[in-house]
Amino acid sequence: MLIIFLRWSVPFLVALSAAVCGSTRTGLTQSTTPAANLRATGNLTFASCSEGRCTYQGLITNDGPDCASNVRGVTHLFDASGKEIETQQWEILGRVRRGETSYTGCCFSQTAVDTYRTYRTDVSFDALLCV
Questions:
Q1: Given the DSSP bridges, would you call strands 99-109 and 84-92 parallel, antiparallel or unpaired?
Q2: How far is CA 26 from each of CA 29, 33, 44, 90, rounded to the nearest angstrom?
Q3: Cα distance between residue 41 and residue 44, in whole Å
Q4: How many beta carbons lie within 10 A of that of residue 56, not counting itself?
Q5: How much is the pTM?
Q6: Which helix (H) or strand (E) element contains residue 6?
Q7: Per-block average pLDDT, block size 10, for the chain (131 residues)?
Q8: How far is Cα 79 from Cα 118, in angstroms, rounded to an integer?
Q9: Euclidean distance between CA atoms 61 and 104, whole angstroms
Q10: What is the pLDDT of residue 71?
Q11: Using alpha carbons only, what angle is made at residue 90 by residues 99 and 79, rounded to the nearest 5 degrees?
């Protein structure tokens, strides 16, 4: 009697474990499309001014799961009425990983720096897998 039970139970257990453990999961595929999310954060600072021109520095944050390359931006200075005073472009060479990264640029005019009240930085990039 024990032999008949073992004959029946062993194939059943093998089939059951193959069905549970060996099954392929549907809908759980890993994406191969990289995804980064870069945005300007923090304050804009002016490191130094010389001969009426001021260098500037700001922060961007990548809170996406992947890296970014070809990171470039435009920083706009606005006066108290919201009118744009001046813009400057900048770029970051290399790869931007998850977390905060600073950007620097040159140069805003001393007049724009003295009169601006708010700013906005627009960021563009290409996402890529981090390696």
A1: unpaired
A2: 7, 18, 47, 44
A3: 9
A4: 23
A5: 0.72
A6: helix 2-21
A7: 44 43 44 84 93 96 94 96 96 94 95 96 94 83
A8: 7
A9: 14
A10: 96
A11: 100
DSSP string, 60-124: EEE-SSSEEEEEEEEEEEE-TTS-EEEEEEEEE-S-B-SEEEEEEEEEEEHHHHHH--EEEEEEE
Task: Give the residue extent of every domain in the chain.
Answer: 38-128
What are the tokens at 112?
């724009």
Residue 93: HSE in the Cβ half-sphere, 13 Å Cα cutoff: 1
Backbone φ and ψ for 95, nearest 5 degrees, come out as -100, 135
The pLDDT of residue 16:
40
Closest C-alpha among 32, 43, 28, 40 to residue 74: 40
Question: According to the model, what pLDDT value does residue 108 have?
Answer: 97
Topology classification of domain 38-128: Immunoglobulin-like (2.60.40)
